[in-house]
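Bit of a strange request maybe. I'm writing a small parser for structure token strings and I need a real example to test against, not something I typed by hand. Could someone generate the tokens for this chain?
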Amino acid sequence: MNFNYQNYLKSIKPFLYEYSEYIIINPLSVKDIELIESKLGCELNEIYKEFLLNFGIFQDFINDFSISRTLLFADLGFTKSDYIVISAQEGFLYLMNNKNKEDDIIYKVTDNEEGEYSDIIPAFTLFEKIESEITNLISNQKNRNHNKEKKITIEYQYDSKAYEMMLGKIESFIHLTDWKEMTDEPNFFIPEEAIIELFGYECTVYRHYDKSLYWFTIEEDIMVSMSQSVIQKFESNCQLFKIDVEIKDENISCKKIEILK
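Reply from user aminoacidic:
Good idea to test on real output. This should exercise your parser:
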């Protein structure tokens, strides 16, 4: 593969900045890449690495290349030294070759209701996919949602130890109500719920019936400033106090804002 992706990806970024009000790009740092590779236990495909350094995991320039941080590390039935899952969509996955780290082909597998995967087949090259998205961006700009209409939604999961640490160390993590079962019907296996306040943001936190697992979701406007972001404050405090919180899922959602005339 003689195509220089490093130069190509850098060359298209000035063009993409013209559409910065309509697409989300969140490049990773070299340190971010090193942490990902350390957690995966292997080096990434060099071309996918360049993509992450220029556009990131959490982006919507390429709509169907979205994957949560948890799924990136999840065991989906593929040896990570062979293939890395770069996108998980309903009914299929996109993979990149980790055996040949200069392979720019995006591979596709489909799964059935039993969770069985089809054969791995080539779908397109990364260059072909990006060029197609650029064409769509130019022709469909009027139909794209403005970034101010987009929201980021992240679901967090944590164990009882992490939960107790948050209560003890994060001053802005407050319980507003006591725990109660999610149904009036008594049942030992029914999860419980409570209302919490996190940096002024109220949401419902749930816990497993045996108190082994807790989870809640934060949703906020994608354009919220770093200083006002509940997500940024929460994750920064977790890092500060070394609280191990797992991100189950994250996504960018859009909603049409109807303008009354």
